[in-house]
Amino acid sequence: MQPFTRLEARACPLGLANVDTDQLIPARFMSRPRTAGYGTFLLHDLRFGPDGAPVPGFVLDDPRRAGARILVARRNFGTGSSREAAVYALVDYGIACVIAPSFGDIFASNAVKNGLLPATVTEDDAESLLAAIEAEPETPVCVDLTAQTIAAGDRAIAFAIDPVRRLQLLNGWDDIDLTLRHAAEIAAFARTRRTEAPWIVPGHGG
Amino acid sequence: MTGARTLFDKLWDAHVILTREDGESLLWVDRHFVHEGSHHAFRTLDQRAATVAEPALTFGVADHYVPTRGRPVIADPEIAGMVARLSDNAARHGFRLFGLDDPSQGIVHVVGPEQGLTLPGLLIVCGDSHTSTHGAFGAYAFGIGASEVAHVLMTQTLWQRKPKRMRITVDGHLGAHVGAKDLALHVIAAIGADGARGHAVEYQGAAIRALSMEGRLTLCNMSIEAGARCAMVAPDETTFAYLRGRPFAPAGALFDRAVAAWRGLAGDPDAVFDRDIRLDAAAVAPTVTWGTSPEEALPVTATAPSPEAGDPARAATVAAALDYMGLTPGMRLDAIAVDRVFIGSCTNGRLDDLRAAAAVLKGRRAVVPGLVAPGSLAVKRAAEAEGLDRIFIEAGLTWADPGCSMCVGMNGDIVPAGERCASTTNRNFRGRQGPGSRTHLMSPAMVAAAAVTGRLTDVRDLTEPDREA
Ligand code: SF4
């Protein structure tokens, strides 16, 4: 996984609360293999009408947002299903950071595992950031994970992130490699668990 | 560990392999459910040439994409490929699969409990957010993403930071024709779709103790819609009676030994929660959602909200939801006409749910089309043995095979664009039941009432017409 330290890019305002993972990627696209890329499915049903034609004025397709790598939204971003495909759609589209007052727990965890930064800001800061990028679409926003700050024009705001997730992003760590170093402890725990609670291993069933 | 512990603390402590200095703990996983949507995780395994660490603790279920009509034929080649890939992975890695051809096939959160795979005290994960369902047995159960599924497949462990603890106490008794689904929607409306975010929720109180296992499953299932990391009810005699004799549950002396251990799971009386919420069951009415988030729920006797009336920060969200749903502020919710109904899903696809819907539909006709998809083949057989299938069919509804079906529309069972569906499912998100679909969430009895009248209806108007309004 690529480490994330600092990002300077244009930002897209998505001024909605409770943007659920069904919006981020509708379920019908998730049977596709990832190889072809999930970017075109991002926010698909908000972005395209029932006839497949682009919804006029949808923020992702605003030319002034071209190349945006940051998304700013309202509270409870990524609520809903555990589909990691929601993160794949964001990442494949080019988004590397989502800024919002709160995130769905599973979404935030999935995000970090794919190098996407979920940056938590206060409701007030989210509103001010939304206003700033609405007003000046082409102004780059700078997200610094080391300092945990966001700069947009002359605004500077702090963001929160779980310290462990921050380290994982900064270092581009892969969980599985870290875990496999504890193989002996895991094996010992498994033996004890099976002895103390033998019913955890199901019978052969019906 | 010292001091008084909650149920959650006990579950957590029993699964910690080690805790790092930074506060992350490596947890042991007792039960891992996978489904055909877990294909991304299996690809990660292939890329690493890895195998499944604990196939005996891993169970597969084909549910999200499977057809509910015309089986065993799968018309869509992409879906047929996914179901076949799950079978291949099960065979290759040696875990038990409840595939399309298995007599116990069904939705993962229905199959786990009814097969006795879900037990008190277990740590249970699945690549599906409604894994919170299994907490109804006093298990620590939560949904994970594809990277975590791959991690569990390879190591039978997960890194977690301990969530905060939240208690929701529901005193008193639920009224007639008011059930666990109404209570769940009431709770979510009260605390918000992120009201329990970052918390492990434990339900307590007389109204919870009085719930059947099915009711507890519905309540824990919906807790993810309040943002909870997981939800649980301490196991009691209701739990043990449900589990006795289930196919995969421990049997004989081992069952008795397990029950003795499970009795110790109840939280200590003076254990402290980070948050405490208290509700009165008598205040819960038959509840429906009007908007596009499960928190947008109201008693069916209420009217649609006006964007201007509430919190100004939420006005735009309310206006957008009303617009998408095609509603006008102030209109009576029981005046909303529906185009179709759906009864099923991991929230309300169990035998109790089908009985509640059939009790309303018996001797009546639905005036709109509708689909009934039982939660599993076991539920389907039990319902047919009681003649519930006849009631649904005679009412004019379609009696189908089990799967996620119209809850998520992945298998092609969708609500056409612009149509409005009264649904027993758990998410009323935009387009959840198909592009442009409009979903109103409610209990099985309420969906049955809507089928009979063709509009959102207080089920009590049908079942107790002389009641004082
Ligand atoms: S029934 Fe619906 S909510 Fe339940 S597992 Fe299937 S898709 Fe998810």
Automatic annotation (TrEMBL), chain A:
Pathway(s) annotated for this protein in UniProt: Amino-acid biosynthesis; L-leucine biosynthesis; L-leucine from 3-methyl-2-oxobutanoate: step 2/4
Protein family: Belongs to the LeuD family. LeuD type 1 subfamily.
GO molecular function, one term: 3-isopropylmalate dehydratase activity
Catalytic reactions of this protein: (2R,3S)-3-isopropylmalate = (2S)-2-isopropylmalate
Protein name: 3-isopropylmalate dehydratase small subunit
Classification via HAMAP family: LeuD_type1 (MF_01031)
The keyword Lyase belongs to this UniProt entry's keyword annotation: yes
CDD domains (UniProt xref): IPMI_Swivel
Domain of life assignment: Bacteria
Domain Aconitase A/isopropylmalate dehydratase small subunit swivel positions: 1-122
Entry keyword annotation includes DNA damage: no
GO cellular component: 3-isopropylmalate dehydratase complex
TrEMBL record, chain B:
Keywords: 4Fe-4S, Amino-acid biosynthesis, Branched-chain amino acid biosynthesis, Iron, Iron-sulfur, Isomerase, Leucine biosynthesis, Lyase, Metal-binding
GO MF annotation, one: 3-isopropylmalate dehydratase activity
GO annotation, biological process: L-leucine biosynthetic process
Reaction catalyzed: (2R,3S)-3-isopropylmalate = (2S)-2-isopropylmalate
Keyword Cell membrane: no
Residue intervals of the Aconitase/3-isopropylmalate dehydratase large subunit alpha/beta/alpha domain: 9-454
Entry EC no(s): 4.2.1.33
Cofactor(s) this protein requires: [4Fe-4S] cluster
Pfam family, one: Aconitase
Pathway(s) annotated for this protein in UniProt: Amino-acid biosynthesis; L-leucine biosynthesis; L-leucine from 3-methyl-2-oxobutanoate: step 2/4
Quaternary data: Heterodimer of LeuC and LeuD.
Stated role: Catalyzes the isomerization between 2-isopropylmalate and 3-isopropylmalate, via the formation of 2-isopropylmaleate.
Protein's name in the database: 3-isopropylmalate dehydratase
